[in-house]
Design a protein that fits this description.
The protein is mainly α and about 500 residues long. It has a domain at about 60-125 and about 350-490. About 75% of the residues lie in helices and about 0% in strands. The chain is built from 21 helices and 2 strands. The protein has helices at about 1-5, 20-50, 55-65, 70-85, 90-95, 105-120, 125-145, 170-190, 195-215, 220-235, 245-265, 280-285, 290-305, 310-345, 350-370, 370-375, 385-395, 410-420, 420-440, 445-460, 470-490, and strands spanning about 165, 170. The protein has a two-stranded antiparallel ribbon with strand order 1-2. Helix 10 runs antiparallel to helix 20 (about 445-460) and helix 18 (about 410-420) crosses helix 19. The radius of gyration is 23 Å and the shape is globular.
C-alpha cells in the first residue's frame, strides 16, 4: 500500500508518451504481489484453522464484521462483470485501452484491493509518511517543471511550451485530480497527528502544494480541493479546537500566494515565466489570496480571546460555534448546490467548462440512444468512445472527434453510459455510504475525517475530470482505509 502510494505517481519510463501505461504497470505489479502474498497467508491460515477446528468460528466472525460499504463494493463487482459480458468489445472494455486504462480489469482489481486493505490495514499512521514525502517529491518536480528546470528530462522531444504536461503525473487533468485527493487529506492530518515534527512537515508540504496551485494550470484542482474544503470547514466547526489548524492553513495559503505574486510580477527570476490559470490569475490580480490568511489571523485571535473569557460566556460561544454554525454551513452548501445546478442548466452550451459541455452532451445522448440493456448495465467499462464517436459522426452540426471524448469528464455520467443505471447508482451510493458510516461510528473519528476529506476531493474532481487510472487507485486505497477504520470500531 505504501509503495503504491509513493511510486505510482513518480514512476515513468519514456517522457510523457506512456505515462498512463506506466501508472497502470505499477498498479498491476503491486496489486498482483499484494494479492499473491495475501492469498498465500490466507491458505496457511486456512490450514491452521482447519487443523485447530476454528474455521467456522473465523468465518462467522468475518461475516459479522462486514459493513454496508462491503456490500456496495460486491454489487459493483457484479455489475462490472455483467457489463463486461454485455459489451460488444470485451478486450477493449477489459483492458480499458480506450479510456485512460480504467477498464473492467482495473475495476475488478480495485474491488479486490479494497477488500485486502479494509481487512489488513492496521491503522498505523506511519504509512501516511510515505504518501507525504512521495507527494512532496511529485509537487516539487511539477514546480521545477513550470519554471523551466526539466532535470528528469520529461520534456525531451516534447516542447516545454506544451503546458498541459506537469511533473511525473501527466496532463493538467491528471495533476488536478492528484492534488484534489492528496491536499484535502493532509489538510486534516494535523488534527490527529500528535508529533510536532510530523505536523511541521505536513504544513511544509501544504505550503508547497498551495504554491503549486498558483504556478501551474490547475483550475480543476481548485474545484476538487474547494469541494473537499466544504467538508473540512464543517468538520472543523464541530470542535472549536480544530479552528487553529484551519487558521494555520489559511495563513500558509496567503504566504504561498505572496511568493507567487512576487514571481508573477518578476518573470525574469527563473528561466521561464510561471503559468497562471484563470482562477490563479484572478487571485493574484486582485490579491484575493490574502483572504484565507486574514481569516486565519482572525481565527487565531478568536481562539486566544475565547480562552480568556468567563466560563459561562465561553460555553455559550462554544455551543454556538459547534452546534449552530455547522448547520448554517450545511444550509449554505445546499443553497450553493442549487445555484450551481441552476447556472449549469441555464447557461449550458457545448463550450461550457473548456468544452466539457460538448462531452457531456454527446455522452448523455449516447445513453438515451442505447437499447434497454445498454441503459441498464451499460456498453462496457471504459467504452464511452463507442458511444460518443457515432453520436459525433451523426451530429447535425460540425464537431471533430478527438481523444477528449474517451471519458465523460464526469464520474457519474461516465458510469451511467459505460455501466448503465445500475453502475451509476452504485457509484453514487459509494460516494454517500462513507458519510453515513462516518456519522454513525465515532471511533478513530479524526483519521476517518481525513480519509473522508480525500474521498470528497476525489468526488469533487470527478465532476469535471474523469476516472484516470492513478487517481482511481488512490480512491480505492483511501476507501479501503476508511472501511478498515470502521472495522476497528466493530473489533473494539
Amino acid at each position: 500500500m505504501a509503495l503504491m502510494f509513493t511510486l505510482l505517481p513518480l514512476y515513468y519510463t519514456d517522457n510523457y508518451y506512456y505515462i498512463l501505461d506506466d501508472k497502470f504497470i505499477i498498479f498491476d505489479i503491486f496489486s498482483k504481489i499484494l494479492i499473491g502474498v495475501i492469498c498465500g497467508t490466507l491458505i496457511i491460515s486456512l490450514i491452521c484453522d482447519i487443523y485447530k477446528k476454528k474455521l467456522g468460528i473465523e468465518i462467522k466472525a468475518e461475516l459479522l464484521k462486514k459493513n454496508s460499504l462491503d456490500m456496495v463494493m460486491l454489487l459493483f463487482l457484479v455489475a462490472t462483470i455483467f457489463s463486461l459480458i454485455h459489451t460488444l468489445d470485451f478486450e477493449t472494455a477489459f483492458d480499458g485501452s480506450a479510456a485512460w486504462l480504467v477498464g473492467g480489469y482495473a475495476l475488478i482489481i480495485g474491488v479486490v484491493l479494497y477488500f485486502i486493505i479494509s481487512r489488513f490495514y492496521s491503522g498505523k499512521p506511519d504509512v501516511w509518511v510515505y504518501l507525504l514525502f512521495g507527494s512532496l517529491a511529485v509537487i516539487i518536480i511539477g514546480i521545477l517543471d513550470r519554471f523551466g528546470n526539466d532535470f528528469l528530462v520529461m520534456h525531451d522531444e516534447i516542447p516545454l511550451s506544451w503546458n498541459i504536461f506537469i511533473s511525473t503525473i501527466g496532463n493538467v487533468n491528471f495533476w488536478g485530480a492528484f492534488l484534489s485527493v492528496i491536499v484535502p487529506f493532509f489538510m486534516m492530518m494535523p488534527i490527529f497527528t500528535k508529533s510536532r515534527g510530523y505536523r511541521f512537515f505536513i504544513y511544509l508540504f501544504l505550503g508547497v502544494a498551495y504554491f503549486s496551485l498558483f504556478v501551474v494550470f490547475t483550475n480543476t484542482s481548485y474545484f476538487g480541493i474547494g469541494i473537499a474544503l466544504l467538508f473540512i470547514v464543517w468538520y472543523s466547526l464541530k470542535d472549536i479546537k480544530r479552528l487553529s489548524n484551519l487558521a494555520v492553513e489559511g495563513i500558509m495559503f496567503s504566504f504561498a500566494g505572496a511568493i507567487a505574486e512576487f514571481l508573477w510580477k518578476n518573470p525574469d527570476t527563473f528561466a521561464r515565466p510561471m503559468d497562471t490559470d484563470t482562477v490563479s490569475l484572478v487571485l493574484l490580480s486582485h490579491k484575493l489570496y490574502l483572504l484565507p490568511g486574514i481569516v486565519g489571523v482572525l481565527l487565531i485571535f478568536f481562539v486566544l480571546i475565547l480562552d480568556r473569557l468567563k466560563e459561562g460566556t465561553k460555553e455559550k460561544i462554544t455551543n454556538f460555534v459547534e452546534k449552530i454554525l455547522p448547520k448554517i454551513w450545511l444550509g449554505l452548501i445546499g443553497v450553493g448546490v442549487v445555484a450551481v445546478i441552476y447556472y449549469i442548466v441555464k447557461n449550458f452550451s457545448l463550450e461550457m467548462f473548456t468544452y466539457r459541455g460538448s462531452i457531456w452532451y454527446f455522452s448523455f445522448q449516447g445513453f438515451l440512444d442505447g437499447d434497454f440493456f445498454d441503459k441498464l448495465i451499460g456498453v462496457g467499462p471504459g467504452m464511452l468512445d463507442s458511444v460518443t464517436r457515432p453520436e459525433i459522426e451523426n451530429a447535425s452540426f460540425h464537431v471533430v472527434w478527438d481523444y477528449y471524448y474517451n471519458t465523460a469528464h464526469n464520474d457519474v455520467l461516465e458510469y451511467l453510459v459505460t455501466m448503465g443505471v445500475i453502475g451509476a447508482a452504485l457509484r453514487v451510493v459509494m460516494f454517500i455510504i462513507p458519510f453515513v458510516m462516518f456519522k454513525k461510528n465515532k471511533t478513530n473519528e479524526a483519521q476517518k475525517a481525513a480519509v473522508l476529506a480525500a474521498l470528497v476531493g476525489y468526488m469533487g474532481q470527478g465532476f469535471v475530470t474523469g476516472p484516470y487510472i492513478y487517481v482511481y487507485v488512490f480512491y480505492i486505497i483511501f476507501l479501503g482505509a476508511f472501511s478498515a477504520y470502521d472495522r476497528m470500531e466493530q473489533i473494539s
